[in-house]
Amino acid sequence: MISFTFPKSSPSTPLPQHQHRGPIRLGSPVSSAGRKRRIMSMQCNRLTAFLLLGFGITLFLTHTIVQQTTGQSSIEHISKLSKFLPSKTVNRWADLYVAEADFPETTYMTGVAGFNYFHNLYFANGTFLIVTSEPSSLPSYGINGILSGLQDPTDKWHNHWAAEEDRIMIVSPQEAKERMLLGKAAIRKSGVSMMFADIREGGQSSFLNHYYHFIGEMFLGLWRVVTAAGEIELPSRLIYKADSPDWRDHAGITTWFQQAVLPEAEIEEATIYEDRRKSGVTFLFDKIAIADRWAAHRAGQEVKYWNKANADLPSLPVPLTWMDPLRDQIKRLALAEGCDMKRKNPKVPIVLYINRQLTSRRLLDEDAEELIEEMEKLADEGVIEFYNEFMEKLPRVEQFCLAMKSDVMFAVHGNGLSHQLWMKPESAVMEIMPVTGFARDYAILGEMMNHEYYAIHYNETFPVEKWRKENGYGVDQGPDFHSPRITVDGKFMAGMVRKLVSTRINVVEPALPWK
């Protein structure tokens, strides 16, 4: 505010010539000093307004992201990045040490037998503690469907029974205190932890050293329960009870996936788990999902009919985009390595045939030749863009690049069909099997991915209503399931492909949420 001071005078005293009676209007020329003060004040006000505007724009740009979803853009606070990054990025200021007086109760989020997700789960002296005053909030299968004990070495059927209190227990806060089951303080393990409880026992594998059995069953199962709880944070750590030779697959896909797709996740091997057990320290896992194959087989519903640990997972509702955070990670890596995600012709869908003719489970040579000839005819007609690939010969990222941009994938039953996980949702998958049998492994993946899946028996589809015996159990694989004598009608496959691509002409690759 600009103010002026005037000399005092009495009515009888004449005013100097440069002064006059009457009001002085704001802005009237008074003196050169006053004019300078007025100009300086106006300049300060303009500078202040400009700085405030700049600060506001900077704050907006550094604290928000523009997210693209289903073709629309929305502006969100930058903390939303936690949906795609390990939550330790956001929670790094959280208290590392939690006093006993502040111990929260455990919350069961969601899950199915063998795949369970908790908030605030405790671990002390080798035992997980579900600390709750409402045990009825836990699933009806209880510990039986959460964690297993060791098998009885004398049992020829390798049965595993439910874990006992040396591994996991359900206690009330009062009981935990009275029995001194927890320490006076806990070390917080923030972010999403994923634990794989299976280990090798004698000659029995943990089944973790296989692309499908690890990523397609156990890891995917834990990701499914996290997203079913409405969360899409990438894991901060992967915890193994198995020794590393038992979870590292011979093809190296597991280690590649962990280091390339989850580069910020900590990999905790069996020695770290053992150190934590022996430390005598209480740990508080903010968020932890636990996979236990034998708990799934012991307490699962559909699992018992199919002998597949992940058979109950399709029953967990998730958004259609539930795999996007993982797929987008691979996509960014593939793009950085020069992967071309586009069709050669925007209106010609891409078809990928994963060729298994170099393996023991394969097509008859004459059927394999006819199949490729029929696909090449479709390509010559301009109906499809065709790729006939031996995946084991391709660099890792190129394999995933092909899978991501394919609209239709088909192959003889085998590990390569796990690549359907990285296709766009609602793509098409065909699995060729001997006419004498069926296995539901990759059909489960197709259902979880919401793909259009078909089992192929020579020159016909093998429909869902024929997958079960009268007693409800899945049909057998049959004697030729793993043989080099599998048959298929190339012309029938060409007809199926023509039909499947006709509904996918206008499909486009979804945009990344940010680049």
From TrEMBL:
Biological processes annotated in GO: protein O-linked glycosylation via mannose
**Region described as Disordered:** 1-32
Q: Which GO terms describe its molecular function?
A: protein O-acetylglucosaminyltransferase activity
Q: Does the keyword Protein transport apply?
A: no
Swiss-Prot/TrEMBL keywords: Glycoprotein, Glycosyltransferase, Membrane, Transferase, Transmembrane, Transmembrane helix
GO cellular component terms, alphabetically, are: endoplasmic reticulum; membrane
Subcellular location per UniProt equals:
Membrane
**How does the record classify its membrane topology?**
Single-pass membrane protein
* InterPro entries according to UniProt: Glyco_transf_61_cat, Glycosyltransferase_61
Mind telling me which residue stretches traverse the membrane in this protein? 47-66
**What is the designated name of this protein?**
Glycosyltransferase 61 catalytic domain-containing protein
Signal peptide residue numbers: none
Task: Report biased composition (Low complexity) as residue ranges.
Answer: 1-16
Q: Which residues form the Glycosyltransferase 61 catalytic domain?
A: 211-430
Primary localization? membrane
